[in-house]
Amino acid sequence: MKNNLFTFLLFFGAVLTVSAQSNKRLLAIFAHPDDEQTVAPLLVKSVEEGVEVTLVIATDGRLGVNEYTDYEAGDGLAAIRREELKCAAETLGVELIHLNYHDQLRAAEGYDGHIPHVRSLLKDITEIVARVQPDAIVTWGPDGASNHMDHRLIGATVTQVFTSRNWGKDVQLYFFGIPSDILPSDEAVMLRGTDRGLLNTQVAFEPRHLDTAYEALRCHASQYPSTVVDQMKKERQALEQKVFLRQFVAPQSKRRNLF
């Protein structure tokens, strides 16, 4: 009888959790196809809890060549990565919005190429936030996790959109972060670390969420052969089973001096 009661209470608690989350909307905005892997366990867990999750990827991945494969940069690779991203989004169970901006946001074309591109991106992100009406937004922090120029610019763009107006509802903005104390060197801390004390949102996940996250990563075969995915998963399993985030905290009062 006690076991039956315990099972019922567990089930009832799970139902209440899903019900509480079922009217919530999460918007995850990142730069490249495969960037979603950074927070993939969080996305899987959120979907499981009944949150409506929308993933926005800004660029087409056309410059995504690496040491693992011999693809050439350009339209052909962009087409491949678009299909890979669809596969990953389906595996994660999220709604996908894949924009069509070039990797590096045409920075090599100078002001006349780059600035119209990023201004158009600002408009698109603004329209998406207005349409989706999220309760929470997750994006890159100022470090971009790897200092990648696209990561940092996407995070800055989302932050500008978020801070540009009152959205008429309580929306929370979170930056992905890597705790400085797990990084291997002072240089790594400088380039991409966040002091653990600032990572005020730490979302624990279960092994099944990690399993689904890495099944989704296998979709990105142009970037990561299966053996590389296996190694990445093994390394991730050795770390804390959490996604670390830093919440953007709005001021609660007005100051009249700096100190």
Explained architecture:
There is one protein chain. With 259 residues, the chain is of the alpha/beta class. It has a single domain (23-247), classed as LmbE-like (Rossmann fold). It has helices spanning 2-21, 40-48, 75-92, 110-132, 149-163, 186-192, 207-217, 226-237, and strands at 25-30, 52-59, 95-101, 136-140, 172-176, 178-179, 193-194, 201-204, 242-247. Strands 3-2-1-4-5-9-8 form a 7-stranded mixed β-sheet, sandwiched between helices. A two-stranded parallel sheet has the order 6-7. α6 (186-192) links the parallel β6 (178-179) and β7 (193-194). The longest helix has 23 residues, at 110-132. The chain is globular and about 60 Å long. The relative contact order is 0.15.
Short key terms for the protein model shown above:
9 strands; Rossmann fold; seven-stranded mixed beta sheet; 44% helix; single chain; 259 residues; two-stranded parallel sheet; alpha/beta
Any chance you could write out the topology, listing elements then pairs?
Layout: H1 2-21, E1 25-30, H2 40-48, E2 52-59, H3 75-92, E3 95-101, H4 110-132, E4 136-140, H5 149-163, E5 172-176, E6 178-179, H6 186-192, E7 193-194, E8 201-204, H7 207-217, H8 226-237, E9 242-247
Parallel strand pairs: 1-2, 1-4, 2-3, 4-5, 6-7
Antiparallel strand pairs: 5-9, 8-9
